[in-house]
Amino acid sequence: MKRRQFLASGAVFAGFLLALPGNLMAEWVAGSFQQVPLTDAFRNALGTDDIVVTDKISITAPTVATDGAAVPVEIASELKGERLYLFVEKNPTPLVFTCTFHGSALPWFSLHIRMKESSTVHAVVWDGLRYHMSSVHVDVLSQAC
Amino acid sequence: MSDNIRMVAREESGMVTAKLVISHPNESGTRKDEQGNLVPANFVRTGTVTLNGSPLMDLQLGPSVSKDPFFQFRFAGKKGDSLKVSFTDSGNMVFAAESVVL
Predict the structure, then answer these.
(1) Is the predicted ipTM greater than 0.90, yes or no?
(2) A chain contacts of residue B86, beta-carbon cutoff 8 Å
(3) N or C: which end of chain A has fewer CB within 10 A?
């Protein structure tokens, strides 16, 4: 194969690879995951810091976590949630994850997170009209991040 | 690359709870090794879940997710439903798995 042909076929293949993931999977939104204070993290991820405090979202997490490297957190929303966000106020990157629910998915999620130090943990739910938030405090005995 | 994900989904009274673990170092980029050098960031960033071929969830993940990410989620479903997950890390490695609801 000549060099020119090889380059051309490579370019076509690369184009195919670039086109493929875009269709299968949403891009990672880097702007939401910056190392900024919490209020900026809210604005970056939600586009606003106008959030209604509610008791309709429950966060289950240990009051005292012995290991900050893996703190189990469970979020359950009584509000019909379209999107769920989790923030750890004092982590370098406050936004932990966001989840968009489709079809028969229930507004519930559980995962293990890193916590750099004792901090308030905020769960935010978008119900299609507004943002709602509940918060809990977790004391961390050993550091991770 | 499905060896990297272990997933189980169980139905109980119309509600399915799925649990999955991705074997991944999930380096946040802020940790230092024994020599005091920063370990480069390498973590799972996006994920999609489909149920019987239809979208169920889209995930965006940051560096604050623990090593060997462990996720649980729920949906209305039944035994025999087909659940597929696909995750991509910051190095564009793709990790995928599928399982049938038990």
Answers:
(1) yes
(2) 24-25
(3) N
